[in-house]
Amino acid sequence: MSNNKLPVASHLNDSEYKLLLTVYAKHNSSIGLEERAQYNLSEVTKVERNTDEICLEVYYSNGEWFKYYPNGTWA
After folding, report:
1. Per-residue pLDDT reduced to its tens digit, 13-42
2. Fewest CB within 10 A of the end CB: N or C in the chain?
3. pTM over 0.85
4. What angle do CA 65, 71, 72 make, to 5 degrees?
């Protein structure tokens, strides 16, 4: 999987990357079509591990960011 990772997420291990894609898909499907344009994977500018809260912090080009959790939720 590591060869096909988004450049901003290339530092993630395979399970973290799978978490990113899984929660992203759920998050993306929960928002309206017009809003989705702002939250495409191509709009992700940074992904950071948050080891204290055990989540990934996903930053978008519009300035918004979300925490993606292993249980499939986001905040």
Report:
1. 999 999 999 999 999 999 999 899 899 999
2. C
3. yes
4. 55
